[in-house]
Amino acid sequence: MSKNNIKIIASSIIFFIITYILFGTLSTVKAESTYNQSVKSGIEAFPQEYQELLNALKQEHPNWTFDAYYTGISWDELVQNETNHGHNRIINSANSLWKCSCGDVATGYACASSSITKYYMDPRNFLNNDVKVFQFLEISYNERIHTLEGIKSVIKGTFMENKKVSVTVNGNKQEMSYEQIILEAAKQSNMSPYSIATKIIQEVGSKGSASVSGTYAGYEGYYNFFNYAASDGGSPIAKGLEYAKNGNGKQTRRRKRKVIITLDRPI
Question: Is 141 inside a domain boundary?
Fold first, then answer.
């Protein structure tokens, strides 16, 4: 997604910046079986070292708003759980400081070290960039923010632009544009349609792939827009389409979120 498209979408969008603890002190909190979690609105709800970076973003984008999500999880506990061997991986050709000594966990990959995991979990490393900050975008559906025009700007220049398909929504057949389909999927799954559209482009490319052609040999009429279950080895596309075929017909899916929209055929 281009930077221009991002700025169009973000004119009134809400961010969630995750603050695991107050990073200024990096204090250790004893782990508990339950966590006291809360959301606080406004830049003033963040630790002081966040505020300078967020205020700079606010000056450039006055309509952006920021919420702080306090998880109640200590920094030490978080890092420990995220650096369990095999939990997070990094390409094997990466800098040796980025890799854990546990060795390969899959062909071409190694366990991520605690230092590189800490770097990517610390939001302060990404708040000075109005593109990278979007990794902290709140991705629930919000009818006040998410619009067909916004979705159009995300899918502009892709295989989904200005295209209609024959679909079945909750048992009713109709023709819909991709932006309409994505918006309906967002409503049903409570996911941001911008996130859904971006994920589709990320998974199958701006021109689409055999996973969404509906014509892949042996799997005609089946689609997998998120490449779910398309694991490495053999034919990833066939694996993904086999999942779609054996799962629930021709449904589009996201992990643990079921979207009851069946694509019948491209128009």
Answer: no
Best CA proximity match to 150, nearest among 4, 5, 1: 5
141 pLDDT band, cuts 50/70/90, is very high
89-91 sheet: strands from edge to edge: 89-91, 109-112, 99-106
Domain of residue 36: give its range.
3-136
| 261 has pLDDT over 70 | no
CA–CA dist 17, 64 (Å, integer)? 12
44 and 92 part of one domain = yes
Contact 250, 264 (CB under 8 A): yes
As a whole number of angstroms, the distance between CA 228 and CA 26 comes to 37
* CA neighbor of 1 nearest in space, from 169, 222, 192: 192
- For 135, counting Cβ atoms within 10 Å of its Cβ (0-12 exposed, 13-18 middle, 19+ buried), the class is exposed
Assess if residue 45 is contained within a domain.
Answer: yes
Phi, psi of 264 (to 5 degrees): -85, -50
Q: What is the pLDDT of residues 3-59, one digit of tens each?
A: 444 443 443 344 444 433 333 333 333 444 577 888 888 999 999 989 999 999 999
CB of 226 closer than 8 Å to CB of 199:
yes
What does the pLDDT read at residue 33? Answer: 52
